[in-house]
Amino acid sequence: MPRTTIKSEDIADTTVVAADLRDDSITNAKIKSDAAIEASKLESTLDLSGKTVTLPAASVTAHGPVVATITSIAYPGSATALSTAGGDNLVVTGTSFLAGLVATIDGSVCPTVTIDSSTQVTLETPAKSDATYTNGLVMVATNGLSASATVDYSGIPTWTTASGEILSFTKLTATTVTVAATGDAPITYAVTSGALPGGLSLNTSTGVISGTGTNDVSAATTYNFTITATDAQSQISARAFSIEVDIKSNYYGDGSDGALNT
After folding, report:
1. What domain count does the chain have?
2. Is residue 42 within 8 Å of residue 13, measured between CB atoms?
3. 220-243: per-residue pLDDT in tens?
4. In the listed set 122, 154, 186, which residue is the last one of a domain according to the structure?
5. pLDDT class of 10 with cuts at 50, 70, 90
């Protein structure tokens, strides 16, 4: 009885070519479920032009280039802008931050780029003019792909009052002196270290130091303190000052506040 099947050994490698087969002459129904074509019988390149190939979703894994993203930036402290002098630490959060990242602001290179993690980078900022740089922060990965964000620059308060001694007065007398700084209004003032002489206080809106000195020193005393000016962007500038409190002297020069000793 003649065979009704064709075995693999009956077919030479080049015996059957596409031209020898009619369209649809071999269908899935004619192929056993365990039939297989050895890899050696397949060309390394398949021509699928004009064909529609459908693969199960789970069988395909895409491997595209890594693209960093920026989700937020954090200015130093409570500031809402960078100092025009540069040197601030700008913290950038996002995704896919890798070693080799280069950062610039409006074309100026950030001197230091520290990869804290794949989601956070700390940048040392370059000096720039007072302005808003729309998409001015550009971070470029080693693959050439980049992410950008908008950053603001603003000058910190500039003191117009020289540091050092700003006042000398006699205790138990009324006195006043003003410290001042310029910048983006409003400027506010605060004593951030040291202390004013007893009886004197600082107006945080105007920078005026005033009051009547108390009787708490028995000899000339110098009070050292620091006042910090803060502008509208919460940028700060501190300066050291001092005030000397003298005692009254009587006719006899015994420092007894003018009262004669008996």
Report:
1. 2
2. no
3. 999 999 999 999 999 999 999 999
4. 154
5. low
